[in-house]
Design brief:
- The chain is an all-alpha fold.
- The protein has one domain: NusB-like (N-utilizing Substance Protein B Homolog, Chain A).
- About 70% of the residues lie in helices and about 0% in strands.
- The protein has seven helices and no strands.
- Helix 1 (about 5-15) packs across helix 5 (about 70-85) and helix 5 (about 70-85) packs antiparallel against helix 6.
- The chain is globular, with a radius of gyration of 14 Å.
């Protein structure tokens, strides 16, 4: 089990498959016994969806032309990693380690380097990247996945 992988799967179900968060989340919460694990899964899922527009704009700014058409689950995993870096008090090294480890859980080993590079590049250039996307439409609005 990997909380980040499960959060990415939930985000993918909501964004791509148009499943409601209320329908997607409970199946994954059942997998965890610890209250703190359930709380983290819920936070990562809700938070990533809440800030989806902004996180997606950041991700697209960090991906190269050849990697822009990446797998949707890997894309969601990157969004989850960026959410942690921007909004949670999880140390950067832990976010990197756990998010990259999630590529094994989702059986996308080819994406290990991509996820690592995107998250590290964001850490290095966070101020510049955030300034670049500041004027992108909808990036400062909540995504409408809760309606």
């Amino acid at each position: 089990m990997n909380i980040r992988a499960d959060a990415a799967a939930i985000v993918t179900q909501v964004v791509v498959q148009k499943k409601s968060l209320d329908d997607a989340l409970p199946d994954y919460l059942k997998k965890y016994d610890e209250a703190r694990d359930k709380a983290l899964l819920q936070e990562l899922s809700y938070g990533t969806l809440r800030w989806h527009h902004k996180l997606d704009a950041i991700t697209k700014s960090l991906l190269t032309k050849t990697s822009k058409k990446t797998d949707v689950l890997v894309h969601s995993l990157i969004l989850v990693g960026l959410y942690q870096l921007l909004y949670l008090r999880i140390p950067h090294h832990a976010t990197l380690f756990e998010t990259v480890a999630a590529t094994h859980t989702i059986k996308k080993l080819w994406a290990k380097g991509l996820v690592n590079a995107v998250l590290r590049n964001f850490i290095r250039g966070q101020e510049k990247i955030l300034a670049q996307i500041e004027n992108t439409p909808n990036t400062n609005e909540f995504a409408g996945y809760f309606n």
